[in-house]
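Tokens in:
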């Protein structure tokens, strides 16, 4: 019997707040009407010749007292989750990222959903902050690796060429034969031109001016032409959709994704052909890079702890709300697809 009563009490306490108030006030009115009727009838029977206005005062006091007590008890039980929620909000505002609203067994269902939503919001915020910290660390790592790469290229290419120029100049100082002087000057001109080309190439890779001036489509066309000039791969570009400029950060991210994909094709894929497709739709832009190379196992590539490569592409895209899809297998080529939503 006690278990049945406890179960009924639990069910009553889990009734929505609006229904609790309606039930409580209905009980007050019903019990007051019954009690008032019984007392009035008995009083009239006992004192048939009297006026009975004096009953108004005790009836009013009893009804008011019962209404206050019953409504107070119902609302206090129903609004307990709001108190816990307010306490947790105060902790969160004070900087406690671990603050969560404790669940109550007898909470009002609507308020319980509110506390659950708050806890989910706090969990999502914590996840977002952790992801932001991770991405920030990876971006810093990528920047340092990029600086190291540029420094290595400057040392390996330009610095060596400049060293050779200094050696040729010293030889030129000691040369007395006009033919030897002319030969040394020709070599110096060739070395100077080579150094300038290397410096221009590094500068273009760091910040391609064509991307800023003409947009993503023309920058991709230039990148494909450069790959074709190398003779290693025969590449093509297809563009569909409107030609208007994309947001600056979207263009830069997609260009870097294409640059990394084409560099991987030239260096590692062993491909004969490659294609780049840029498709602009009303609400998104898609970049697809496909090659017929030797392919690889995507699971290993995702796990590489470097700021570049496939993981770097995905993280760059995440900064603009995009996503990266990869299809590859040994001997079957590779397909890299980047999708970025547009506001």
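Residues out:
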């Amino acid at each position: 019997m006690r278990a049945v009563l406890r179960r009924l009490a639990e069910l009553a306490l889990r009734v929505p707040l609006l229904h609790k108030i309606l039930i409580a006030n209905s009980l007050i009115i019903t019990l007051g009407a019954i009690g008032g009727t019984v007392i009035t009838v008995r009083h009239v029977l006992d004192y048939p010749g009297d006026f009975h206005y004096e009953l108004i005062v005790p009836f009013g006091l009893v009804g008011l007292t019962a209404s206050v007590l019953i409504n107070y008890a119902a609302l206090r039980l129903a609004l307990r989750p709001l108190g816990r929620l307010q306490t947790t909000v105060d902790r969160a505002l004070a900087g406690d990222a671990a603050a969560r609203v404790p669940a109550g067994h007898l909470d009002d269902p609507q308020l319980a959903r509110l506390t659950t939503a708050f806890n989910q919001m706090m969990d999502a915020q914590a996840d977002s902050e952790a992801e932001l910290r991770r991405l920030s660390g990876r971006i810093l790592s990528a920047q340092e690796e990029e600086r190291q790469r540029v420094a290595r290229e400057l040392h390996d290419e330009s610095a060596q060429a400049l060293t050779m120029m200094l050696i040729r100049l010293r030889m030129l100082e000691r040369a007395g034969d006009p033919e030897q002087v002319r030969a040394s000057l020709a070599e110096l001109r060739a070395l100077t031109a080579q150094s300038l080309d290397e410096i221009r190439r590094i500068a273009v890779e760091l910040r391609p001016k064509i991307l800023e001036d003409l947009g993503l489509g023309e920058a991709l066309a230039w990148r494909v032409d450069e790959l074709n000039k190398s003779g290693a791969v025969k590449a093509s570009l297809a563009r569909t959709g409107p030609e208007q400029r994309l947001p600056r950060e979207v263009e830069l991210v997609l260009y870097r994704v294409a640059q990394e994909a084409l560099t991987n094709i030239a260096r590692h894929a062993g491909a004969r052909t490659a294609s780049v497709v840029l498709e602009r739709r009303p609400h998104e832009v898609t970049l697809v890079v496909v090659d017929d190379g030797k392919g690889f196992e995507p699971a290993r590539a995702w796990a590489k702890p470097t700021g570049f490569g496939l993981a770097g592409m995905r993280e760059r895209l995440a900064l603009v709300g995009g996503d990266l899809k990869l299809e590859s297998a040994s001997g079957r080529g590779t397909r890299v697809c980047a999708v970025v939503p547009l506001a």
